[in-house]
Design a protein that fits this description.
Length: about 350
């Protein structure tokens, strides 16, 4: 029995894909047989160091012809998954396929009959691709092939339990690399944020503060498409991080910034509510532009006078993040889940 984690072939940094690689590494380190499954032959994420075992979905012309003929002569159009670089030539019904939530209603149509686990890293993408027509209710979450669901936040757990009352999803705690995202007191008067999120929102917030002359002495550093190491370095040296997510399953960037001791101001985006606590951050409800601007201004205009207090606040935030979202906790959560899944499968 092997566990295959289907992962998108992204060429840009993605926290969700990084988690998939880490889960495969954790399982292999604990005696399981696990692989990342990519579609593009030869693909491997290069924006972080890894030697994670990878296999590939065979999508050669020969296989595509096979699937077309199979669909033509059979009432079962479900696609088999043939493999390249794996110990077997295809996914067997004794294996387990782990699918991200982003595959939506198609989850139930992939390799029908093969046991599956849904790895949901953003509950707000659960219904992406679904029709809103009342008579169309494809629901892979309660399909017989689904043997378990993993979710990465308290917010996501509440979401799935409300939507699917008979479902018993398991929550796992994401981990933050304490060596990479480490607390630092050596802060620059610098505000960093991810450039690919909240473009309209950050444009409003920063221009409000510019008009009010409340950014004096602070440099603005948006970032996108850089390595984990460079992100961590930027967060360690930045006094402030802006959280710009809209609807997040967890929200790794603000958590990582808090681990580095940055003062995080901005949207908790749902998933971040559990760690963006008011005692050591400035959480804002999504869409409250004025509240965001006022909170940020409160920090920038008092930073010099209260610098030591802000450094202590950053230290408390870092301590909370690194103790709650530790590799040990993530590993324990995963092992408990997978031992349960495999135990039920064996009976």
């Amino acid at each position: 029995m092997a566990i295959y984690f289907l992962a998108p072939d992204y060429t840009f940094p993605s926290g969700g894909v990084r988690v998939i690689y880490r889960h495969v590494d954790i399982l292999n380190a604990n005696g399981f047989e696990a692989y990342v499954l990519h579609r593009q032959l030869g693909h491997r994420c290069t924006w972080f160091e890894n030697d994670t075992p990878i296999v590939y979905w065979d999508s050669s012309i020969k296989r595509r012809i096979y699937h077309k003929l199979k669909k033509y002569v059979s009432n079962n159009p479900a696609r088999k998954i043939f493999l390249v670089g794996a110990p077997t030539s295809k996914l067997e019904d004794t294996d387990i396929l782990v699918l991200p939530e982003i595959y939506g209603p198609e989850i139930k149509s992939i390799a029908v009959g093969v046991p599956k686990v849904i790895l949901n890293q953003n509950c707000y993408l659960t219904f992406r691709g679904y029709s809103i027509k009342k008579d169309r209710l494809p629901n892979p979450y309660t399909h017989p092939d689904i043997k378990g669901v993993l979710i990465n936040s308290e917010d996501g757990l509440d979401y799935l339990k409300y939507v699917f009352p008979t479902l018993e999803p398991a929550r796992f705690r994401l981990s933050i690399d304490k060596h990479l995202f480490a607390y630092s007191r050596a802060k620059k008067r610098q505000i960093c944020y991810t450039a690919r999120k909240g473009e309209q929102e950050v444009q409003q917030v920063l221009n409000i503060l510019k008009v009010r002359d409340s950014l004096s002495g602070f440099s603005l550093v948006p970032f996108s498409g850089i390595s984990q190491e460079k992100v961590a370095q930027l967060m360690r040296e930045s006094a402030i991080f802006l959280s710009l997510g809209q609807y997040e399953g967890f929200g790794l960037p603000p958590a990582e910034a808090m681990a580095c001791g940055s003062i995080v101001v901005g949207f908790h985006a749902g998933g971040g509510r559990e760690f963006m606590k008011p005692e050591f951050s400035f959480p804002i409800e999504y869409g409250d532009i004025l509240g965001f601007a006022q909170a940020l201004e409160g920090v920038t205009t008092t930073y010099d006078a209260r610098q030591e207090q802000y450094l202590e606040m950053g230290q408390r935030a870092s301590d909370f993040i690194l103790s709650t979202y530790s590799p040990e906790n993530e590993e324990a959560d995963l092992l408990a889940f997978w031992k349960g899944i495999l135990g039920r499968a064996s009976t």
